[in-house]
């Protein structure tokens, strides 16, 4: 049996949120430097929507109860993903209905936060050919 050491999913998800928040601030500062304060606010809103949605996913989808049972974990993951999509839709609707934003800054920052997610996922997974058994799995053989 091969057991793979993977990072704690909740901790990884929360670190993604932290990374997305940092990228959001960087995008806002870049937007401010390249355009104006209105573009910076738009970038904060776009990245903030993604960060808040990822936080909802981390809290709902990777709760402590989910770690006790595989079926419960899968159910919690899907509920968390549903919450994430709902948060994104609601926040985009609210922002677009109530504010005048700079679309490029908002969507650019929103998309930049996805890069954080994919980089974190790529770094968390073991190399494709590099699966090695954990020490306690070797003892069971």
Tell me what the structure shows.
The chain has 141 residues and is mainly α. It has one domain. The chain has 5 helices and no strands. It has helices at residues 9-34, 37-61, 70-98, 103-124, 135-140. Helix 1 packs antiparallel against helix 2 (37-61), helix 1 (9-34) runs antiparallel to helix 4 (103-124) and helix 2 packs antiparallel against helix 3 (70-98). The longest helix has 29 residues, at 70-98. The radius of gyration is 18 Å and the shape is globular.
Features:
141 residues; globular; mainly alpha
Topology:
Blueprint: H1 9-34, H2 37-61, H3 70-98, H4 103-124, H5 135-140
Brief synopsis:
It is built from five helices and no strands. With 141 residues, the protein is mainly α.
Strand content: under 5%
Backbone shape:
globular
Uncertain runs are none
Backbone structural class: mainly alpha
Report the mean per-residue pLDDT as an integer: 85
How many distinct beta strands? 0
Largest sheet report: none
How large, in whole angstroms, is the Cα Rg?
Answer: 18 Å
Distance between the termini: 7 Å
Helicity, as a percent range: over 70%
Please work out how many helical segments DSSP would assign. 5
